[in-house]
Write a structure and sequence with these properties.
alpha/beta, Sulfite Reductase Hemoprotein, domain 1, five-stranded mixed sheet
């Protein structure tokens, strides 16, 4: 209230908008937000990931959407490819199940949790949904391209963004690029990320984030 009175809004992408902050108050506001751990960089970029509560608190959750979102942010904070303007504007959204609370169906790169059995063990997976749109009060659902083990999802993001940056034609959008490649080509691109190692070789695949 010191800086904005009652002019605070929330957004559908899980951000908070502070309205009518004076220029003179910006340094002090940033200092106070930093002290409260609310001043992380990357708002409005690919690092600004939307995620539902997932298995942290939701009884319907199948996978750890918040855990995955945190891991993706940490990895992208260390990755140079995020500096590419074509990648920086992409949106990643994660749901812990198929109910779309994380808005995965309208994301550039979306994931929703599911589970697969491998040799009698449960293995957390995320279904990959690509090319969704949410623009100007209209949208279209992304294309589901297959389930990938949860621990491979960061590799999915890196594979897609790296390929998009090098393969896009002119100012081609991510959605148009996905449509041009098609489900078969994208499936081939991600095929190496689908296998799950045996439990005794790498038990980390059998535990979520």
């Amino acid at each position: 209230r010191r800086y904005v009175g009652d002019n605070v809004r929330t957004t559908v992408e899980q951000n908070i908008v502070l309205r009518y902050v004076s220029n003179a108050d910006l340094p002090a506001l940033h200092r106070d937000l930093t002290a409260a751990k609310l001043a992380e960089p990357g708002a409005g970029t690919i690092m600004d990931i939307t995620a539902c509560p997932g298995t942290d608190t939701c009884k319907l959750g199948i996978a750890s959407s918040r855990g995955l979102a945190a891991e993706l942010r940490n990895r992208m904070a260390r990755a140079s490819f995020v500096a590419d303007a074509a990648i920086e504007g992409l949106r990643i959204k994660v749901s812990g199940c198929f109910n779309s609370c994380g808005q995965h169906h309208v994301a550039d790169i979306g994931f929703f949790g599911n589970n697969r059995k491998v040799d009698g063990y449960s293995v957390p997976h995320f279904q990959v949904v690509l090319g969704g749109r949410w623009r100007e009060n209209a949208g279209s659902y992304g294309m589901a391209v297959g389930a990938i083990p949860s621990k491979r999802i960061p590799d999915v993001v890196e594979t897609l963004t790296t390929r998009f940056a090098s393969d896009r034609s002119g100012d081609e959008s991510f959605q148009d690029w996905i449509a041009r490649l098609g489900k078969k080509e994208i499936g081939a691109m991600l095929a190496d990320l689908k296998p799950v190692p045996a439990h005794d070789l790498d038990p980390s695949f059998y535990v979520d984030w």
